Amino acid sequence: MKLGKVEFCHLLQIIALFLCLSGMNQAEPSRSRSKPYFQSGRTRTKRSWVWNQFFVLEEYMGTDPLYVGKLHSDVDKGDGSIKYILSGEGASSIFIIDENTGDIHATKRLDREEQAYYTLRAQALDRLTNKPVEPESEFVIKIQDINDNEPKFLDGPYTAGVPEMSPVGTSVVQVTATDADDPTYGNSARVVYSILQGQPYFSVEPKTGVIKTALPNMDREAKDQYLLVIQAKDMVGQNGGLSGTTSVTVTLTDVNDNPPRFPRRSYQYNVPESLPVASVVARIKAADADVGPNAEMEYKIVDGDGLGVFKISVDKDTQEGIITIQKELDFEAKTSYTLRIEAANMHVDPRFLSLGPFNDMTTVKIIVEDVDEPPVFTSRLYSMVVSEAAKIGTIIGTVAAHDPDASNSPVRYSIDRNTDLERYFNIDANSGVITTAKSLDRETNAVHNITVLAMESQNPAQIGRGYVAITILDINDNAPEFAMEYETTVCENAQPGQVIQKISAIDKDDPPNGHQFYFSLTAEAANNHNFTLQDNKDNTATVLTRRNGFRRQEQSVFYLPIFIVDSGSPSLSSTNTLTIRVCDCDADGIAQTCNAEAYILPAGLSTGALIAILACVLTLLVLVLLIVTMRRRKKEPLIFDEERDIRENIVRYDDEGGGEEDTEAFDMAALRNLNIIRDTKTRRDVTPEIQFLSRPTFKSIPDNVIFREFIWERLKEADVDPCAPPYDSLQTYAFEGNGSVAESLSSLDSISSNSDQNYDYLSDWGPRFKRLADMYGTGPDCLYS
């Protein structure tokens, strides 16, 4: 009868329980071998516990607590006086004990893979005194394994490679599966391997998991990748065991088992004869099914009539053979070439020589096509010479070019004027003779490099170029001259025969044997009494004094004409004038002052004196500027301190005027003319507070508003006037006082033209009021007369 998985588990639990009970019964004889236990002053022999360790199956699926075992002390008489307690790992949470009977149960499902065993401590206590009757004892509950974990490939999925064409049994890769079950108990963790997918190409060792090739001559070019499925099964592969799978991707790596082969036995290419050197003529490739280094090839020309004209190289990226030109092609000389080309593998595997040979041959024929070529000069560079004295039209030389084509078209010549901008030369269009067109000057341009153009008469677009270098030969056409501008001085205290200057000459010409110059004084200067000239015979000359006692007052400058002759044929000469200045010199003969005017100047004004005078003048100018600045600042308005009371500056005048006869005290016209317009200027200081002091009036006059506005305007002008002093002077014209018969006589209250008062009675008051009577007594029409 076959047992299912559930029935098998129950059977294992029954067997384990039987083993536990058997262990408890076998432990009884060991009681008498325990050590004595002392308690409360009396001695007795300790009776041992009746257990050592318990076993419990993992993954218990029942609803009731799982019985683990029973604790029992020989002190326990069964009367309930003893109670059992449990401590340690999982006590109370996983394992519980019946304190009366000592039965231990597991309340939770246990997993050996999480924890394989639990260490606990048990003790028997007197229920009344709660004191131990037996010493505490430690025991272990082991979790008994069942097959509840399938094998797992922790490193999967796998990838591996094996060379193609490998023999049978070649190792590819090893796979490993792990089982979490207990390897020391039963077959739960004993794994065997098998292949589910990948046959018949590969096989796997059942115990080791090593994958090997199972077929010979597996060709990468036919199939380069295989997918394998490997199974690992526990319980030694028996029925009921658990299994796991993984995938293995096996790639066949390449070996050089395919020789190169040209797709064609012959090739033909047409190229124009005008193709430049190093140009690519063709690309050929031998097919090779291998890849990487196994497909690397080399090409070479092994035979043919184009060995020196063409060469072949390999393109490292595409493994193509590249045929290029080494020499210029000429259709008129040769119209075709034949090349025998070999392609061979660079890395040959001796194991596969039987599949060879690992090289191949092909034929390449190159046809040269005729093109219309430009004319070709007989020489790439022509060198010609001509004298700079040559006359216009002198023949310098001849160039020649021809048409290389079979038609041999006539050629016409011309000069590229971009290389002869000054048009010094001409060329005959038919003969190629080059002549001078202008006078030449070697000193201006010693070599002329010109380009000559040759074009076909039938096809002017075909132009050939030749290069001509024309060297100008020198003639003696430049007279010698001083090598530099000399600044020659002679001291007033110079002695006769003293050297004052050494001179040399230059010549723009370039004679073959070098320059030779001759120096002398001109005929008119040869007998002078001041200076003489000595030719040193080395293209230099020395100027010497003939006398002493030179004085600037008498003559400050001397002019000495010197005659210079070169050694050319014919020789040329020139007269150069040397200017000699008379100077005042120090003790070492170094010139100090050379101007005649400086000699007349008084000696008292030295440089230091001039600097002192200039400093004094500048100081005076600064003082003048400071004075002017200070005077301008005094005119500016004063800036008041903000903390000062401006009212302290008000000045009051309480004196009375001089009466009607006093016409100088106040300008009445200014009071009468209300329409005077003054320029308003803004003061830069603060506006003072104005105190208005007025006398009480006994009679209110409606027209006094006009006068108040007038006075306000004048006060505002004074406040903003920058030229006014920082105080106000105020004069008030008010009433005469109380009890006056005439009441107020102030004109400030009586200027209104709309007044209804009658002032004719003023004429009766006597001569003292005559002026007022004239002003007001005649009516408003006479007010401003």
Word description of this protein:
The N terminus and C terminus are likely disordered. 11% of the residues lie in helices and 32% in strands. The chain has 785 residues and is mainly beta. The strands form 13 sheets. Strands 34, 36, 39, 40 and 41 form a five-stranded mixed beta sheet that branches. A four-stranded mixed beta sheet has the order 3-9-8-5. Strands 10-16-15-12 form a four-stranded mixed beta sheet, with no helix packed on it.
Q: Describe the sheet with the most strands.
A: 5 strands, mixed
Radius of gyration: 69 Å
Ranges where pLDDT stays below 50 over 5 or more residues in a row are 1-7, 20-50, 598-603, 639-648, 670-702, 733-737, 779-785
Query: What's the pLDDT, averaged over the residues?
Result: 79
Shape descriptor: flat
Q: Structural class from helices and strands?
A: mainly beta
Q: Number of helical segments?
A: 6
Q: How many strands in all?
A: 43
Give the % helix: 10-25%
Distance between the termini: 162 Å
Strand content bin: 25-35%
Subcellular location: Cell membrane
GO cellular component, one term: adherens junction
Pfam families: CADH_Y-type_LIR, Cadherin
Transmembrane segments: 599-628
